[in-house]
Amino acid sequence: MKIDSGIPVELDQAGPMAAHVEAQGYDGGWVFELNRDPFLPLTLAAEHTETLTLGTNIAVAFARNPMLLANIGRDLADYSQGRFVLGLGTQIKAHITKRFGMPWSHPAARMREMIQAVHAIWDSWETGDRLDFRGEFYSHTLMTPMFSPGPAPHGRPPIYMAAVGPLMTKVAGEVADGWMSHGFQTESYLREHSLPALEEGLAASGRARDDIAITMPAFTVTGDSEEELAAAATAVKGLIGFYGSTPAYLPVLEHHGWGDAQPELNAMSKQGRWDEMGDVIDDEMLETFAVVGTPEEVGDGLASRFGDVLDRITFYAPYEASEQVWTRVADRLRAS
């Protein structure tokens, strides 16, 4: 299992932090699209590193079009000498239509077609054959030699796809090179619902489990003292409550018999009671979603829960902890 870390989106921090992440022995560094562009920081990260895998986790796919993604993906793959991963996610309808002003319809089918279109564009650049992609949502039929960068010196970058529900997870198995599981995922839901959907998609495309990478940000609660553990638990409970307020994540709660918590959390979100959401998440729920304990216990726990499933992992921790804490977690995870 490869262990990854985050890279800040701020341009003045991305390069130095990427170099530091690489020096600390991490395998990859990811940028999340929140309030800045997720691709520009990776240019600087590539400039400051030599071996670190670099990617978006995630870039909002439907805020862009396949040609734009194909160009950005190719540029970053070239500049990083083949170390870039194009990680895509759908976001939700309100953000796509109201924040980005882009169309929303049939998200699973649209995402499938978007990835197929990007692949078709890259294939056209590679072979020189005529670009002729005609789909329900995207059509790309013009590629004159002037606009083609030609064959890629380091190959086309892998496309990882974020998915939560079974339909979108099946699409990841059909067309993506990697599946990015959401952090709002428990071990039993992962094994009993998500992995079967992924396998169904792989089978539909004639592929096997080894043909796709699985990565996940895993909730972790740790620290060097009881006070730090308590603060970490409070922060993670709040984040679990935030995600639990979203209807799309209701199936995970229902799987554990906690479906009644979702309407309560959703109502709190509409009332602006964000700071109170964590109070709905009890210790049993926390320890089901997150691995809790000393750094060594967390390393062992992550290996026990996900060691036979995940190819890459990041520590999902919305709180401050020392660098030594994360080094201990990572060392224990590597040794498990």
Q: SSE order, as H and E?
A: EHEHEEHEHHEEEHEHEHHHHEHEH
* Count of β-strands: 12
User: Which geometry do the CA atoms define?
Assistant: globular
| Number of separate helices | 13
Note the gap between the termini.
10 Å
Share of β-strand residues: 5-15%
Q: Which stretches are low in confidence, meaning pLDDT under 50 for 5 or more residues running?
A: none
What is Rg?
20 Å
> How is the largest sheet built, in terms of strand order?
1-2-3-5-8-9-10-12
Output the structural class. Answer: alpha/beta
Average pLDDT: 96
Largest sheet: 8 strands, parallel, barrel
Helix content: 40-55%
Describe this structure in words.
It contains 13 helices and twelve strands. The chain is an alpha/beta fold and 336 residues long.
